[in-house]
Structure formats: C-alpha cells, structure tokens
Design a protein that fits this description.
The chain is α+β, with helices and mostly antiparallel strands and 641 residues long. The protein has a domain at 500-639: Galactose-binding domain-like (Jelly Rolls), CATH 2.60.120.260. 40% of the residues lie in helices and 15% in strands. It contains 21 helices and 17 strands. Strands 6, 7, 8, 9, 11, 14, 15 and 17 form an 8-stranded antiparallel sheet that branches. Strands 10-16-12-13 form a 4-stranded antiparallel sheet, with no helix packed on it. Strand 4 (401-402) and strand 5 form a beta hairpin. Helix 6 (140-152) packs across helix 9 and helix 18 (407-416) packs across helix 20. The chain is elongated, with a radius of gyration of 29 Å. The N and C termini lie far apart (71 Å).
C-alpha cells in the first residue's frame, strides 16, 4: 500500500475538470516531445505473407473476445444506466472562456463537483458488484492477449512479423508468456503498441547483460522499461529535432543506454532510491535524447561543482536545483564551440525549454524518473519523488502535457499505481473494455469519453486516490521561478562544521602556501552568496553562487614568512564561460582576475602575480554582479624565485 506522505495542494475536483475540455497545448518554441508517441503502423505495405498474418491475428483476437464475452457476469441494467447517464453529463460539461463572468465560472465549478460526485457514486456501486470479477485472475491470460493485440493492432503485428520467421516467433513467444505480458502491461505497455520492436530490444539487452536476466531485479526492470519506451533515438540528433519513424531494424542505442545505467548503478553513481523503482518508473529514466557521454559528464560535474545538490533532503529540488542556481534565465543563444550540447546549454543559459532539457538530463543522469510537462507557450518538467510526482518550473497539472497524456490523467494514474494490489483491478476493467471493443477514456481530456468498462477503470483510480486522501505535491519552483532568476527563498546555505584539518593552511618544501577555500575568516558561516560544503570525494569546498543582487567579499588572513612576489592561483570548477573575479591584496588597488571555463572539472587557474608583506596579509575576492557560479577547492601562493 502507498505511504500517505503526500502533502500540499489537495487533489481538487475543479482542477481535474479543467482538463476535460482542454486541447493539447502548443509546445514552446525550444521544447520537443522527447516522449512523443510513435504509431506502431506508419503506412507500411503488407506483403502476401503480411496479409496472411494479419488475418491470423484478427482471427485470434476475435476468438479471444468471444471467449471473454461468454465469461463475463451480467451487469445490473439500472445501475449501469445511472453510471452512463452521469458520464454523459460529465462529457457534456464545457469549461468557461477567459472572458466569461465570475458567475459563469462558479456555476461551472459547482457543476463539475456535483457531476463528478454523481459519477463516482454510481461507479462505486458497480465496482462493489463487480469486485469478484475484477479481483480474479481467472481470465487474465486471455485478457492480456487481447490487450496486447488491441494496442499493437493486428495490422501492426503483421507489419512486424512479415519481416521474417524470427520476427513472427517473437510475437508468438510473447503471446505465450503470461508473466512477461503482465509485466509489460503493468508498466504501461509498449510505446505506440510496438511490442515487436520492444521484444527485440529486450532480447538484445538480456544478451548483453547477464544481470538483466535476473527476474524481478532492478536490472531486469530497467531492461524492460527501456525496451517498452522503444522506439526513441538518444544521441542521434541535436535537441530540438524530432522525427518519428517506423523501426524495422534493431538499433543498439537502447542496449548501450541500458549498459550505461547498469554500470552507473554498480559504481554507486545513481540516487539511492533508484534500486526500488518499478518497471513503469524505469521507462522514464533511460528515455533521454542526450548522449551517454553527456549523462556521465553531468553526473561528474554536479558531484564536483555542486556536491550539495546530490544530498539535498528535499527530493523536489534534488538534482533539479542545479538548473535554478547555475543556469541563467536569459535569451537563448548558441555557440557549439563551447563543447557538447549540454555544456553549451548550461554555459549560455536560456529560456524555459533549454532549462527543462537540462533539468530532465540532470534528474535522469542520477536515475530519477522524469517527463516533459509541456504547457501552452512554456516548457516545464515533472519528476518522481518518494512522495509522488511534482511539476518543476511550470504551472499546475491541469495545463500540463506529459507525452501522450494530459497532466491530470498522468497524475491520477501515477497516484493510483501506488496501490499495486488494487491497480490490477483497474487494468482488468480496461482489458475487458478492449475485449468488448469499447473506446478508451481520452488520455488527453481528463475523464472524457470511453466505454462502460474503461470508464469504470477511470473511476476505480479516482476512488483509490480519494479514499486514501492523497494530496498532490505542490509545484516545485512554479511558473514564476521557472521563468526568472528570482531567489527561491532559502539561498543561505546550511551551517556546517568544518574540521580543523580541512581549513589548515599548509606550506610545501618550496614555500608554496595552500589555503583551503573554506579557511576564510569572512564570512564565518554560510551566506546567500557563499556556500561552504563537503566535497563529494574528500575534504571541503566553497561555492560562490550566481544568485543574488549584491556581491560579497570573501576574506583570507595569510601569514607569509617572507615578503616578496608570489603567484596566486586557485583550484576551481566552473560551468560558465567568460568569468572573472576581483582580487584585492591588503590595501592595494583591486585587480580583475580571469576565471577559466573548466567544464565542471577541477582545474588550476592561471597565476596572478601579487606582492605580499612579511607577516599577516589580507586577500579578498569578490565577483561583480551579475556573475556566474564558481566552486573553489583551494588557493595557492607560490613564491616567485
């Protein structure tokens, strides 16, 4: 059962209903549907063999449907009529227009609440009557075959199977494997109904990885989730271009992507929660259009540059706050000479779409399920947390678009899925609807349309969520913070105890002084611009943030044994280009010090010659605003011989 830790905004009926009349939002100019559905059939001609195969699958589907129809219990006509009548009322509701009066809006909201309550009450009566049927697995083998053939379509299966005997065998083996069919359907089915292609990828992954053959393990769940999200095309094109095509060959991308995550998990690089993700959640981890190299790079960068981001106890902000803190909201520009796509986009910043891309990359790199949440004129993202899904840098679910699903439909489904023992009843009701040839409830318009059984499945999900009094998580960042560089409100870092060894200044045999970045005497603790934190590997480090309106001085007192000229350098990490800081030695005039672009790795800066006095010296550094973030490990003062 679900852990009832969901907090914040109540899952309210009025917000649900807004989606019922909402069309698909237009995508923001720099956003792409990286999860867009790809049809299983794309005008592929059938050969003579294909025609025979389509007839075979059509005949099988008809026989299976007939078997189910004869096995279903009778449904009370009066109760069914009451339910369908309430559904008709729901489907007829029309949301008010923007310029409609407050009275019209209130009347609509009242109608939504009343109609939803009426439909749910009618559904509860039927769900009680039919519970024995929905709780039984007696018909599952037949129902699951119907569901898969219906989703793939007989023609789609024929288009795949006509490619050869091996392809036909793949489909036959799937339809004979009840446990695999169940796991696939529980995980949402194959993207676009492409079960043949998904099976090919799954077999290829299992051939490449022995661990992925461990039934029920995170490796097997990840392998299947990756396969079900087929077809997708990571690393094949620049972000911003998407061209769905029919897959008739096995691409190695998904195998390489799975192996990337298997290694990252075994190396301890992924979030601790990754190991417990289910197959449905896993499919939203590996489906990222960035390359494996970029996934590796951003993990390494965040561990080096902002290690505080990967231990943030607030899962709503973990890994994603990196975008807010270190990617400016500004006009989107391009400079491919900077490096990879991800490096270019982070270094230059951009508007909502670019920030959403990097946010999804950052989350997925650490194994956090993530989806695009396209909104009218705006690109946001949604992601998994242990307490439910949240939208980051965008508006509420009612105006979001998650791949082929409306936001509210996705949110309801994600919450209902937490009740694994009861969610199977949802699926059985949907499968029965397939067997009877009924239409599905519209994924795009919340609760609209659909036949009797699929409508019951929808209200079964709603009943699960309402009875558990689940509350949706509040927005993370919201629209305002998604489209601005405004402060979040908790910019001051946490107090942290710094061991003496980590702030001790040392002297090498050649007289070089090494000053830990955290050995500053001002500020003495974390502030809104200066964050002191543990490094990912060992020791401590300081981060001078880009967020904030006023610069802040960081001061060091240094005892120098001999007066003279020294070379000042720093071991630092940056993710932005063309940066500098202002350095002041004692009471001398401040000088500008250029900061290198390190692509997120530790790098020693070029030396700056300074003159120091014997005894106590004061070194101050600061950045002019607006600035970009810089992480410092330590400074060095090397005597000039």
């Amino acid at each position: 059962m679900i852990s009832l830790k969901h907090t914040a905004l109540i899952f309210c009926s009025a917000l649900f209903s807004m989606v019922s009349v909402q069309a698909a939002p237009k995508e923001a100019a720099d956003d792409i549907p990286d999860e867009a559905p790809v049809a299983a059939s794309t005008k592929i001609s059938l050969t003579a063999r294909g025609e025979t195969l389509m007839a075979k699958y059509t005949k099988l589907l008809d026989e299976l449907k007939a078997e189910i129809k004869s096995a279903l219990p009778a449904v009370d006509d009066a109760k069914k009529t009451a339910f369908l009548s309430a559904r008709t009322e729901w489907n007829a509701l029309k949301a008010p227009k923007e310029d409609d009066s407050a009275e019209m809006r209130k009347a609509y909201d009242d109608a939504v609440v009343a109609t939803e309550a009426k439909a749910l009450a009618a559904a509860r009566v039927l769900l009680t009557d039919l519970d024995a049927t929905l709780a039984s697995d007696k018909l599952d083998a037949t129902l699951m075959k119907i569901a898969i053939i219906t989703q793939a379509t007989p023609r789609g299966l024929a288009e795949f199977s006509q490619l050869g005997a091996a392809e036909e065998k793949i489909i036959d083996s799937l339809l004979a494997d009840a446990p695999l069919m169940r796991q696939m359907l529980e995980a949402g089915g194959a993207n676009g109904g492409s079960y043949g292609q998904s099976m090919q990828v799954y077999a290829a992954i299992q051939k490449a990885s022995e661990r992925s053959r461990e039934t029920g393990s995170i490796f097997q769940r990840l392998a299947l989730g990756t396969s079900l999200q087929t077809p997708w095309f990571p690393g094949k094109q620049r972000i911003g271009v998407y061209a769905p095509v029919q897959r008739t060959d096995l691409d190695t991308d998904q195998v390489e992507r799975y192996m990337h995550y298997e290694k990252a998990y075994l190396d301890g690089e992924l979030d601790p929660a990754f190991k417990d993700l289910n197959t449905w959640e896993c499919r939203f981890v590996t489906d990222d259009p960035y390359s494996n190299e970029e996934l590796t790079w951003i993990r390494q960068t965040i561990r080096t540059y902002r290690p505080d981001q990967i231990i943030n106890p607030d899962y709503k902000w973990r890994y994603i706050r990196f975008v807010k803190d270190d990617m400016p909201y500004c006009s989107t520009t391009h400079d491919p000479t900077i490096g990879t796509q991800a490096q270019e986009q982070i270094a230059l910043g951009g508007i909502c779409g670019r920030r959403a891309f990097i946010g999804r990359l950052s989350l997925r790199a650490f194994g956090i399920p993530t989806r695009a949440s396209t909104q009218t004129g705006h690109a946001a993202l949604s992601h998994w947390t242990p307490d439910g899904w949240t939208i980051c840098f965008g508006a509420w679910w009612s105006v979001a678009w998650c791949g082929p699903q409306g936001g509210m439909d996705f949110l309801l489904d994600s919450q209902a899925r937490e009740f694994t023992d009861e969610y199977v009843k949802v699926m059985r009701a949907q499968w029965i609807g397939n067997a009877l040839g009924e239409e599905d409830v519209d994924l795009r318009k919340y609760g609209v349309g659909g036949g009797f059984w699929d409508g019951l499945a929808f209200y079964k999900k709603m009943a699960l969520v309402k009875d558990a009094e689940i509350k949706a998580l509040e927005l993370t960042g919201g629209m305002k913070l998604g489209e601005s560089d405004e402060l979040i409100g908790d910019e001051v870092g946490s107090e942290i105890e710094i061991p003496e060894a980590d702030k001790t200044i040392t002297t090498a045999t050649d007289g070089t002084l090494t000053i830990p970045a955290v050995a500053c005497y001002s500020p003495r603790g974390p502030s809104d611009r200066v964050l002191l934190m543990k490094s990912h590997d060992k020791g401590m480090q300081m981060h001078y943030t880009r967020i904030g309106a006023r610069p802040e001085l960081v001061k060091y007192r240094i005892e120098v044994p001999t007066a003279g000229e020294y070379e000042l350098s720093a071991l630092l990490a940056t993710v932005s280009i063309k940066q500098n800081m202002v350095v002041r030695i004692n009471r001398e005039e401040p000088v500008t010090y250029d900061i290198p672009y390190t692509k997120g790795t530790w790098m020693k800066s070029a030396p700056l010659k300074v003159k120091l006095e014997e005894g106590t010296n004061m070194i101050s550094i600061t950045a002019r605003t607006p600035n970009r973030g810089i992480s410092f490990k330590h400074f060095e003062l090397k005597p000039v011989k």
